[in-house]
Amino acid sequence: MGLEDIFGKEIKGARQLGEYYLNLASKYDLDYLGGDGIFLVLANKRLSEDADHRKKDTPPWPGIKIHSPLSVEMYNVLRSYDFIQMLKNGEIDGIKVYQYGDDDPFLKPKEVTIYISLDSMPNLGKLLNILEKNGIFIQPALSSYYQQGYKMVLLNKMSIAPYAGVFARFSADFTEKMNIDAIKNIRDSMMANIDTNDINNYLEQVRRIDDDITAKYRSKIDDRVWRAAVDISRPRIVGVPRSWLLYNQYNLDEILRNSDASLKDFYYKLWKNADPKELLRYSPTIYTFITLKEIGGTIVPIQI
Question: Which helix (H) or strand (E) holds 22?
Answer without folding.
Answer: helix 12-28
